[in-house]
Specification:
Blueprint (H helix, E strand, L loop, with lengths): L8 H5 L2 H14 L6 H14 L3 E5 L2 H11 L7 E4 L6 H8 L3 E4 L22 E5 L10 H11 L2 E5 L7 E2 L2 E2 L6 E5 L13 E5 L2 H10 L4 E3 L2 E2 L10 H11 L2 H21 L6 E2 L7 E2 L5 E5 L2 H10 L29 H9 E4 L7 H16 L2
The chain binds pyridoxal-5'-phosphate (PLP).
């Protein structure tokens, strides 16, 4: 059996004619940059997450950059985030000449550990970026309380978490600003790069809309030094078709996650495999289903030989990346992040997987550990 980590072809087939019609209509209009389809997507995403504003941008990475710019983050400032995330979270901070200040994660959900937050805040801290890793929200209540006390902005890196919720509120309204990615492998993926920033703050939204077009509100009048980061009408056309089905896909991912829990329990693999934990106040949308395993790299090679695609998100924490050696962090600085980097393995979770395929994945993992 051959089961890739993610297979978007079945999803595409289920809505092919609707997507091609939307692309054709956009081509007939010959309007490709921003425009009414992008406005429609912004309104649809704002409605979806219950924010008052949403601003379409070119990628999730740019969403983070623009959110930091809107909060006024500049050279010499500090921004607190976690080292166990995709590079873009910290890269956006460095692009502005600001300094990423890392702190460790919780071992259970792989997210920012709020009990460690206060000790890394200094007079220079301008913002905190918690990441909702793998589709589960970080502990935003605790993070927000600390941020409020210190008058620091909170930016959700919700790139993996559209549709996720905490205490009944969706990612997108759990901080001051939230950043989404529509990279093809995200739960809501375009046909290329695209992103969005949501907020309930009118001024921040207007600021991002200005910064994404070179800092201009009135054409050729530039009130700030912005960037070129617009969402394409073609991406918006595709994403509008897909957004209608997002909850259905999230349900499929959640159903598969529950089934994996059952199958792993039946296979009695608990000595070898730790399954992802969902906190009771969280609604997890499983952009990834991430195990902790012993002999991770051997298991990964074995699964590959038996047709099962996996990935390691992420093998090298950001504080140990070469490009960040100037920050001066040593190995051992963030033990939970470093341990996670050695143990994690994400397995296929997309909605279209069949029960036979889920069973096969667990059987292969059981077969690997039986031999050892
Ligand atoms: C995907 C991702 C990003 C960046 O999004 P792009 O659209 O690829 O630029 C940022 N942060 C996290 C956690 C992501 O998963």
């Amino acid at each position: 059996m051959n089961i890739p980590l993610l297979d978007l072809k079945a999803q595409y087939q289920s809505m092919r004619s609707e997507i091609l019609a939307a692309i054709e209509a956009t081509c007939d209009e010959q309007g490709f940059i921003l425009g009414p389809r992008v406005v429609a997507l912004e309104q649809a995403v704002a409605t979806y997450v219950s924010s008052t504003h949403a601003v379409g941008v070119a990628s999730g990475s740019d969403a983070l950059l623009l959110a930091l710019m809107a909060l006024g983050v500049k050279a010499g400032d500090e921004v607190v985030t976690v080292p166990f995330t995709f590079f873009a979270t910290a890269g956006a901070i460095s692009r502005l000449g600001a300094k990423p200040v890392f702190m460790d994660i919780r071992p259970d959900d792989f997210n920012m550990d709020p009990t460690l937050l206060e000790r890394v805040i200094t007079k220079r801290t301008k913002a905190i970026i918690p990441v909702h890793l793998f589709g589960q929200c970080a502990d935003m209540g605790a993070i927000h309380d600390i941020a409020r006390r210190h008058k620091i902005g909170v930016i959700e890196d919700a790139c993996q978490a559209i549709g996720a919720a905490q205490n009944g509120k969706r990612a997108g309204v759990l901080g001051d600003l939230a950043c989404f990615s529509f990279f093809p492998s995200k739960n809501l993926g375009g046909f290329g790069d695209a992103g969005m920033v949501t907020t309930n703050d009118k001024e921040l939204a207007e600021s991002i809309a200005m910064l994404r077009v070179h800092g201009s509100r009135v054409r050729y009048v530039h009130e700030a030094i912005g960037i070129n980061s617009r969402l394409d009408a073609l991406q918006a056309a595709v994403l509008l078709v897909k957004l209608k089905r997002l909850d259905q896909w999230a349900d499929g991912r959640r159903r598969n996650a529950a089934r994996y829990h059952q199958l792993f329990a039946d296979a009695q693999l608990t000595d070898h495999v730790t399954l992802p934990v969902t906190h009771p106040h969280n609604f997890h949308v499983f952009n990834q289903f991430t195990l902790r395993v012993r002999k991770r790299d051997e298991l990964r090679a074995y699964l590959k030989d038996h047709g099962v695609g996996t990935e390691v998100y992420y093998p090298l924490p950001l504080h140990l990346q070469n490009c960040y050696r100037d920050l001066g962090y040593q190995k051992g600085a963030f033990p939970q992040s470093e341990r996670a980097a050695e143990e994690v393995l994400s397995i296929p979770i997309y909605a279209e997987l069949t029960d036979e395929q889920l069973q096969y994945v667990v059987q292969m993992i059981a077969a690997f550990f039986r031999k050892r």
